[in-house]
Amino acid sequence: MSAPITVRDITADEHLAWLRTQPSASFLQTPAWGDVKTDWRHESLGWFEGDTMVGAALVLHRSLPKLGRTLAYLPEGPCIDWASPRLVELLRALRDHLRATGAFALRIGPPVPTQRWRAPTIKAAIGDVTKARYDQVVPDVLEPVGTAVVETLRRLGFRHLSPDDGFSAGQPEYVFQVPLEGRSEADLLAGMNQLWRRNIKKTEKNGVTVRVGDASDLGTFHRVYLETAERDRFTPRGVEYFERMYRVMSTEDPARIRVYLAEHDSDVLAATVFIRVGEHAWYSYGASTAAKRELQGSTAIQWRMMRDALEAGATVYDLRGITNTLAEDNPHIGLIRFKVGTGGEAVRLAGEWDLPLNRVLYTAFDLYMRRR
């Protein structure tokens, strides 16, 4: 008979040691990420089958005013075996632990894919006026584990969040990834479209260089990021956020985070933040200047990051979130075309799910967030 599954607090060192035994995990599930998110209280939890650790999670807590009860949030987590035949027990153990420690709701984001659309399929769909969204297009791959996870969550009473639902899902459900496993640089180039290959050659011919920076380059990155925010009309984060992110993540693992800068004749054309945990590498933040756009600094920096991810042993290069749109008149379609040119694939993840642990408090908090 199998030992019962329990959940208890673990130290950051225990948490990090567990992650090192795994092929990969989301950087949002590292102990360091809790130190980045200073507006949340954080803790590390471990799952145990008897005395053997079988999972770990970073839990971020957002407190209700005056009551002290919390929304317990596991962004892109937890880090457990989602194909386990004991998945229901794993999730119930988490539920019971958090309820006992004062959470009024549990939010998780299983980092498991459910569907994949490859570049040729996406390209054809963009040209099809009857297809405006990914979920209107037959996927190239249906992932059995992800499909089973979604069914299990529904059966256990979890509520699926869309970006416009409830108090809003925090992490993207649709992402764009370039598979790296078993591929060479030549394979990556061959998988790209003609425009990408031509622009890569163009950056080399025109003398665009890309270098890995350090903490001293964060001010330069942030200056370019602020220009991008103004141009693209989004609210930027302060430089202190990136300084803290770089400090705590590089302290946890010197290879965890990098700053890249694409330059030409001492002018910075583009700057990015790159993160890697095990076999998964992310293009996390990116920025570019309006000057010398014809030199394709953004292309040069992406190509360098892909090659570095490949060299580091990553099996996935992740360009992070995309919107669920394929309509040619959508303002995001230019970004979609840019990512599709890499020859990668759109991936739908299981998404974010809520489990109310106190329905009265959950409903009240949901209404409060909707009114905001």
UniProtKB/TrEMBL annotation:
Residue ranges crossing the lipid bilayer per the database entry: none
GO function terms (MF aspect): aminoacyltransferase activity
Signal peptide start-end: none
GO BP terms, alphabetized: cell wall organization; peptidoglycan biosynthetic process; regulation of cell shape
Pfam families reported in the protein's UniProt record: FemAB
Keywords assigned by UniProt, alphabetized: Acyltransferase, Cell shape, Cell wall biogenesis/degradation, Peptidoglycan synthesis, Transferase
Family: Belongs to the FemABX family.
Name under which the protein is recorded: Methicillin resistance protein
